[in-house]
Amino acid sequence: MYCPNPQCPDLVRHGVRGEYRPGVRQCATCGAGLVPREEIPPTAGTPPATELAEAAVRHLSESGGGPHGTLVNIASFHTPESAEVARLALEAESIEAFVADNHTISVLPWYTIAIGGVRILVSESDAVRARSILSEAGL
Fold first, then answer.
1. Alpha-carbon gap, residue 121 to 83, rounded angstroms
2. Is 66-136 CATH 3.30.70?
3. Domain with CATH 3.30.70 in the chain
C-alpha cells in the first residue's frame, strides 16, 4: 500500500512515496488513505529521487557548500568500521568529518568497489591537514 498524496512530505522531501505493509490504512506522515500502487495516478512534474539528489548537490555547489563549506573526499575505506576510526582520528584533532556511503556498504558490501568505498568528507579548508593526520596515523 502506498500514499497517493502528491504533497506528502515523504514524496516532497525524499522523492519517493511512503510504502506501508498490508493492514496499514493511513499514511503516518500526512494521514492520507493508502491505495495499491497501480491506483496511484502518474504525477506530472514530480522528479525521480536521482534528479532530487542532483538538484541538492547543485544547490550546495552554487551556495558554497552549506554550513560546512564545500565538502571534499579525502579518503576511502573498504568497511564502515575503518572509516569510522578515521573520522574519530580527525575529530580528535578538531576537524569535523563526515562518513559517506557507510549505510550502503553495510547493506550491500559487494558494492564497495563500484561506489568507491566508504568515504570520508571534510571541509575543503581542512582537507590538507586532514590527509596529513590520516597519513601519520597509518589510515
1. 10
2. yes
3. 66-136
